[in-house]
Amino acid sequence: MELKEYNACVKEWADALFRFACKCTGNEEDARDVVQNSFEVLWQKKGDVAPDKAKPFLFQVAYRQSIDNYRKQGRMLYKEQMDDNRTVKPGQTDLKRVLERALTKLDEQARALVLLKDYEGYSYEEIAQITGLSDSQVKVYLHRARKILKDYLVSVENII
């Protein structure tokens, strides 16, 4: 990978990687660190990573760093709430808030799997490659995570 290809990867994938990291870490500062570190690792491994494999590589690094960050902080709660209302259309703030609360009910791995599959659109095989799980493990963990989300979303306390 040359400098031109690396810069194209940064331009193309930085926003998606940041959104993913924000959802995984729950904190914008940590997400910025994860994104920066992911691109730093890509730069260090530029000779080993083909340009067409840069996206899965970046998400794999971000996923692992998010997990490491989560373990390091040991379920530390942030008082700061992410200010992500910039992209929300009027009338969707309540739904967005409920969905964000639902995602917090999942553990770090389940949240990352749901985000990779349903938010970023990766296939089961790609998610397995990113996370180091088998295809069947990805399917099982996603099924369990979606069941938790469904149970939370249909509960009476979340009716908008």
Describe the protein's topology:
Layout: H1 3-25, H2 28-44, H3 54-73, H4 93-104, H5 108-119, H6 124-131, H7 135-153
Entry summary:
By secondary structure, the protein is an all-alpha fold. It has seven helices and no strands.
Explain the overall architecture.
The protein has 7 helices and no strands. Helix 1 runs parallel beside helix 3, helix 1 (3-25) packs across helix 5 and helix 2 crosses helix 3. The relative contact order is 0.12. The longest helix is centred in the first third of the chain and has 23 residues, at 3-25. It is mainly α and 160 residues long. The model is unreliable at 75-90 (pLDDT under 50). It starts with a helix and ends in a 7-residue tail after the last helix. The chain folds into 2 domains: 1-74, Rna Polymerase Sigma Factor, Chain: A; 88-160, Orthogonal Bundle (Arc Repressor Mutant, subunit A), CATH 1.10.10.10.
- The 3D shape can be described as globular
Count the beta strands. 0
Largest sheet: none
Oligomeric state, counting identical vs distinct chains: single chain
H/E element order:
HHHHHHH
Using the 3D structure, state the CATH architecture of the largest domain. Answer: Orthogonal Bundle
CATH class of the largest domain: Mainly Alpha
The CATH topology name of the largest domain reads Rna Polymerase Sigma Factor, Chain: A
- Please identify the structural class as seen in this structure: mainly alpha
Mean pLDDT level: 80
The figure for the number of domains is: 2
End-to-end gap: 49 Å
